[in-house]
Amino acid sequence: MKNFNIALIPGDGIGSEVVSEGVKILKEIEEMDAAISFSFAEFPWGCEYYLEHGKMMADDGIEQLQPFDAIYLGAVGYPGVPDHISLRELLLQIRKGFDQYVNLRPITLLNPSLTPLKSKTEKDVDFLVIRENSEGEYSGAGDWLYKGKPEEVVLQTGVFSRKGTERIIRYAYEEARKSNRTLTSVSKANALNYSMVFWDEVFEEVGKEYPDVETYSYLVDAASLYFVAQPERFEVVVTSNLFGDILTDIGAAITGGLGLATGANVNPERNYPSMFEPVHGSAPDIAGKGIANPIAAIWSVSQMMDFFGEEKWGEAILSTIKTILKETEQLTPDLGGQGSTKSVGDRFVELLKDNRIT
């Protein structure tokens, strides 16, 4: 039997509500598959922890998480704690501490009724964004000079190392080759005359090793337009930390909203645990009401199962998401239904049994 040890960080707002439904799915898989078992340990870190302890996670938090096979995160952020603290001192600390340099965001339309794009179908909106996840514009480098004075200046420095840039681009080429898809690089070399010129050069250099991969390169403003106007252009996309953050939210908008958006923070070498999360945030306005959409958190479980090498279960979960999206009345209010977070999870379990692996 394979046992997977999972660290749960429900976090803030609706995080605990949606993580509970994801764990429910994992426990159901355990019931249906005698070859798999899961162990869980929950950590209370987040904004409430910060308000009590003055820090977002324990001082030895990274050491505590190190032994786990994966981390399952709910949400980070809540009123009263500045966003730059809640994000940087928990989520980014884990990403950097465990060298989770690959961020995977599937931009996949699972039901044609969910897109605001006229006449676009599931075939038109089905691609993967690979975002550099460890440096770039989110490196935290910079300075704040002459604070409070008329000559006040702030410097935010984007860091693009040869190692960091080449490894994410190479990962994207490998993914495109493995899946027989095209690869598109998104940058902004006409305006960012150091970082993005370097990015483009590395993309071209690495590409010489992959002559079988068809490639394209767009400026980020053009890519943003094409995400909306012609999403069928894209199959695999690779881009920087900041651009990937923005573009994937556009991707969420064209596939049904953040309630369906999932992301994986991966250390491909598996030297450290990888982290899986819905990316909708803590949604404090609906926290505690029992109406948060758990589907993104459940999709995160699908990504986790793929990472564990249990792709059949990953596909079974994704297939079940497609099925439940057809049952409009069963869904949460953000998708036009009357269901609760818990009832969606319960119904999902019922449907998953029909998609079980034999």
Set out the fold topology.
Blueprint: E1 2-11, H1 15-32, E2 36-42, H2 47-53, H3 61-65, E3 70-75, H4 83-97, E4 102-108, E5 126-132, E6 136-145, E7 153-159, H5 162-179, E8 183-187, H6 195-207, E9 215-219, H7 220-229, E10 236-239, H8 241-253, E11 262-266, E12 274-278, H9 295-307, H10 311-324, H11 341-354
Parallel strand pairs: 1-2, 1-3, 3-12, 5-10, 8-9, 8-10
Antiparallel strand pairs: 4-5, 4-11, 6-7, 11-12
Helix pairs in contact: 1-9, 1-11, 5-6, 7-8, 9-10, 10-11
Task: Please sum up the structure shown.
The protein is α/β, with parallel strands linked by helices and 358 residues long. Helices cover 39% and strands 22% of the residues.
CATH superfamily of the largest domain: Isopropylmalate Dehydrogenase
Question: How many β-strand runs?
Answer: 12
Give the overall pLDDT as a whole number: 96
**How many angstroms does the end-to-end distance come to?**
17 Å
Shape: globular
CATH class category label of the largest domain: Alpha Beta
Give the structural class: alpha/beta
Number of domain modules: 2
CATH topology of the largest domain: Isopropylmalate Dehydrogenase
Query: Number of helical segments?
Result: 11
Taking pLDDT < 50 over at least 5 consecutive residues as the criterion, the unreliable ranges are: none
Secondary-structure element series? EHEHHEHEEEEHEHEHEHEEHHH
Q: Tell me which CATH architecture of the largest domain applies here.
A: 3-Layer(aba) Sandwich
